[in-house]
């Protein structure tokens, strides 16, 4: 019956023929021969270019260095010869010409005269330097603690520019334990309390000093 006859496997690839296989091998051999021939020709060419005795590079005719007509520099007459002679081991008997420069007598310093009595009295009569102004007193608000007076003054200028209440108060910098306390002095406790509340509302720290 026809449905019982064997069926060929259609999934297997068709086998290459001997002619196609031989042609592929010949193509591979020809390509390998071309590559080998090209490499051989390139190597032989470089070998021919680098062969032979080394070429001698001759210098140009004329002197290699030429002394300039004006060498420049400072011309110190006589010193160079003495230096070269001393370096060569010769004994140079150098002498000073004492008659070249005339001698002048050195003036004896005069003793300092005492100041006249009138000038001494005028110095004594000068008013003494004014004493430093006393720090303002009154209810105060501490504004911060800083390492040095420069930082405290910078903080005061910043706060005084932002808050008129601080600008109208008295500035006091109190040294304390290697630092400086910055305080603002007011005329009354109510003014000090109102200024501190204003600073706290703006996000700055402060407290009343008792």
UniProtKB/TrEMBL annotation:
Keywords: Membrane, Transmembrane, Transmembrane helix. InterPro entries: SPOR-like_dom (IPR007730). Residues 133-210 form the SPOR domain. Residues 46-72 are annotated as: Disordered. The chain crosses the membrane at residues 20-42. This is SPOR domain-containing protein.
